[in-house]
Design brief:
This protein is an alpha+beta fold. Helices cover about 55% and strands about 15% of the residues. It has helices at about 15-25, 30-40, 45-50, 55-70, 90-100, and strands at about 45, 70-75, 80-85. It has a three-stranded antiparallel sheet. A hairpin with a 2-residue loop joins strand 2 and strand 3. Helix 3 (about 45-50) crosses helix 4. The protein is globular and about 50 Å long.
Length: about 100
């Protein structure tokens, strides 16, 4: 996409589909919370589970979906997988929306 898109011109269907899928993925509060937390830096699944208030298994499933969509990335450090945001633009959008809607 990028700079070639202009306001007042229809977007390509593929671009709309990708954007809608991404927003749909982030519509789940737990996944939105995970992206919010990871926008602050790397965390392992156990720490994320505690911070999100969910089970390791549930958070792992959310991470798998976010990873498949290219929103997060994992790297191994010893026995732990550390996750981070892999799409800085999406992280910035999440931060802006949450910070803009905070009371």
């Amino acid at each position: 996409m990028g700079a070639s898109l202009r306001t007042h011109e229809p977007l390509p269907r593929d671009a709309l589909r990708v954007a809608a899928d991404t927003f749909g993925l982030l519509a789940a509060p737990s996944r939105l919370q995970i992206v919010w937390l990871l926008s602050g830096g790397e965390l392992d699944v156990g720490t994320l589970a505690v911070l999100v208030g969910g089970s390791v298994q549930a958070v792992s499933q959310h991470l798998a979906k976010l990873k498949a969509a290219g929103l997060v990335r994992a790297r191994r450090q010893g026995r732990h997988q550390l996750y981070r945001v892999d799409n800085k633009t999406i992280a910035a959008v999440v931060r802006q929306v949450i910070e803009g809607s905070a009371p």
